[in-house]
Amino acid sequence: MIMIPRSRPLLTFVLLFAFAAQIFAQESLEQTIAYLIDYVGKSNATFIRNGVSHTPAEAVAHIKAKYDHFKGEIKTPEDFIRLSASKSLLTGKPYLVRTPEGKEMHLDAWLTEALKAHRAQTAQ
């Protein structure tokens, strides 16, 4: 008769829980990034990259391209904003956003505020 140590079922449970948590975190990261990209796309703002104005659709296309490029380095929504939506890789100039009200600010700050609001809403 083979004896199975009592700790084996506990170890199996712990490993399954850790795996499930990792999958949930990844889905949550992807969902949050999708929310931020959608936030840009649905805005009625003007996006300024290297002094040139762009539509929300153009901004989304550029941010998605940078996201695809940096995907392996992005572990948090903040990483996404920093790597994909903060500044030009070529010039180092920050990306800007001009709201419909005419307020101009750095895109990373604008998206960070959107992320904070999103987190507050989803925590309820």
Q: Secondary-structure blueprint of this entry?
A:
Elements: H1 7-42, E1 46-49, E2 52-54, H2 56-70, H3 77-84, E3 96-98, E4 104-106, H4 107-122
Antiparallel strand pairs: 1-2, 1-3, 3-4
Helix content: 55-70%
* Count, helices: 4
Q: Give the topology string: H per helix, E per strand.
A: HEEHHEEH
Low-confidence stretches: 13-26
Radius of gyration: 20 Å
Mean pLDDT: 87
Q: What would the principal axes of the Cα set say about the shape? A: globular
Query: Which strand order spans the largest sheet, edge to edge or round the barrel?
Result: 2-1-3-4
Percentage beta strand: 5-15%
| Total DSSP E strands | 4
Overall SS class: alpha+beta
- Distance separating the two termini: 53 Å
Biggest beta-sheet profile: 4 strands, antiparallel
